[in-house]
UniProtKB/TrEMBL annotation:
Organism (species): Frankliniella fusca
Protein name: 2-oxoglutarate and iron-dependent oxygenase domain-containing protein 3
Top-level taxon of the source organism: Eukaryota
Compositional bias (Pro residues): 48-58
CC cofactor: L-ascorbate
Length: 352
C-alpha cells in the first residue's frame, strides 16, 4: 500500500518537474536567440542585417507614377495594333463568289484642274466610252475555270523556275521576257533554256484568259472593249517570306497603281494559289476611308478587278510562309501604251 501511495504522488511531481524543464528550455531558446541576434548586431555594428540585394528604391508618389507608366504602355500597344485600321472581309478564301461588287466615288484627283490625275481625267473624257460610270471593284470566282487557272499556274512556274530574285518577290513578264534573277532582270527568251520553253498552246491559253478578263472589266465598268487595251506591265508574281534583297521586293507598302504605272486605267488580278493552304499572309488589302481596310483572301482562279486611281489604294500583306502565285493584268485607254499578246517570238529588251 505504501508503495502504491508513493506511486500516485510521483506523477504530479514529475509533471511539475517536466513543466519546469520545458519552461527552462524555452527560456534557454529565447536567450540563445537573443544572444545570436546580439552577436549579429555586434558583427554589423549594431544594425540589422541588410537585404541581400539592397533596399528597394523609393521615390515620392511611387504608386501614382507606376500606374501612369502602365496606362501609357497600354495606350502605345493599342495605337500600334490598331493603326492599320479595322478590317472588313471583301472576299474570304472559302467563299465561292459569282460576283461581289463595291461601288466607290472616284477620287477627288479625277476632277479637272492641275496634276497628273487631272490630266488623266481630261484624257479619259476625250476618249468616248472609256470613263467608268462609277469607280469601284469586283471579285469573281466564276470567270476563270479551274483548268484555266491550273494551266496559268504551270506557265508561271515553268518560267519563274529559270530565275528568281534574291528577296521574296519574283516576276515574269511573258510579253517582254523579263524575268527576275538576283538583283536584276534578264530576257528569258534570250537564254538557251528560255527560248523554247513555251508551246503555242500555252500562249493560246494565256490569250483566252486575258480576253475573258478584258471583257469582264469592260462590262462591269461600262466602258467600250474597243477602247480598252492590254498594257505594260502585265506579269506573273511569286511571293515568299524571304527577306527583301532590293527595294522592289518590298511589295507590302500601300500604293496607287496609277501613280506607280502611268499607263494603268484599270487593274485586274488572277490568283493562282490558295490563301491558308498554299501560303499564309499575302492577303490583298484595300485601304479605304475612315481607317477601314477591305481584305481579299486569294483563291485559285479568283479574279479581282478595280479602277486604278486613289480610291483603290492598296497593298499586299507580307507572306509569312509558303508561296503565293498571282498574275497582274493591266489595261489602258491610251493606244500608245497598248501591247500585244505574247507569242515567244518577238523579243524585246528586258527592263533593268
Amino acid at each position: 500500500m505504501e508503495s502504491e501511495t508513493k506511486a500516485v504522488k510521483r506523477p504530479g511531481k514529475s509533471a511539475d518537474v517536466s513543466k519546469n524543464r520545458d519552461g527552462a528550455d524555452k527560456k534557454g531558446t529565447v536567450k540563445d536567440s537573443k544572444t545570436s541576434d546580439k552577436d549579429d548586431s555586434q558583427q554589423t555594428g549594431g544594425n540589422p542585417t541588410p537585404p541581400k540585394f539592397g533596399p528597394m528604391p523609393r521615390f515620392p508618389h511611387q504608386r501614382v507614377w507606376t500606374r501612369a507608366v502602365m496606362i501609357i504602355a497600354l495606350l502605345i500597344v493599342v495605337y500600334f495594333t490598331s493603326k492599320n485600321g479595322k478590317e472588313v472581309p471583301l472576299a474570304r478564301q472559302h467563299e465561292i463568289l459569282h460576283q461581289r461588287k463595291q461601288s466607290l466615288d472616284c477620287s477627288d484627283s479625277y476632277q479637272i484642274g492641275s496634276g497628273a490625275f487631272s490630266r488623266w481625267f481630261s484624257f479619259l473624257t476625250s476618249i468616248s466610252g472609256c470613263v467608268p460610270d462609277k469607280c469601284g471593284r469586283l471579285i469573281s470566282d466564276s470567270l476563270i475555270t479551274v483548268g484555266e487557272a491550273q494551266a496559268m499556274l504551270e506557265i508561271a512556274k515553268r518560267g519563274l523556275n529559270l530565275g528568281g530574285s534574291l528577296g521574296g518577290a519574283s516576276i515574269l513578264d511573258l510579253h517582254s521576257g523579263a524575268l527576275s534573277v538576283g538583283r536584276t532582270f534578264i530576257n528569258m527568251y534570250m537564254t538557251e533554256k528560255g527560248k523554247n520553253i513555251y508551246r503555242k498552246s500555252d500562249f493560246d491559253t494565256y490569250k483566252q484568259v486575258r480576253m475573258k478578263i478584258h471583257r469582264a472589266v469592260a462590262q462591269h465598268f461600262k466602258v467600250s472593249p474597243d477602247v480598252l487595251y492590254l498594257t505594260h506591265p502585265t506579269f506573273f508574281s511569286r511571293l515568299t517570306n524571304l527577306p527583301p534583297g532590293t527595294e522592289h521586293d518590298e511589295y507590302w507598302h500601300p500604293h496607287v497603281d496609277k501613280d506607280t504605272y502611268k499607263s494603268f486605267h484599270y487593274t485586274s488580278l488572277l490568283y493562282l494559289s490558295d490563301y491558308g493552304e498554299d501560303f499564309d499572309g499575302g492577303r490583298f488589302i484595300f485601304v479605304d476611308k475612315d481607317n477601314v481596310n477591305s481584305t481579299v483572301e486569294p483563291r485559285k482562279g479568283r479574279v479581282s478587278m478595280f479602277t486604278s486611281g486613289k480610291e483603290n489604294t492598296h497593298f499586299v500583306e507580307r507572306v509569312r510562309s509558303g508561296t503565293r502565285f498571282a498574275m497582274t493584268i493591266s489595261f489602258t485607254c491610251d493606244p500608245k501604251h497598248a501591247i500585244s499578246d505574247p507569242n515567244g517570238k518577238v523579243i524585246k529588251r528586258a527592263p533593268k
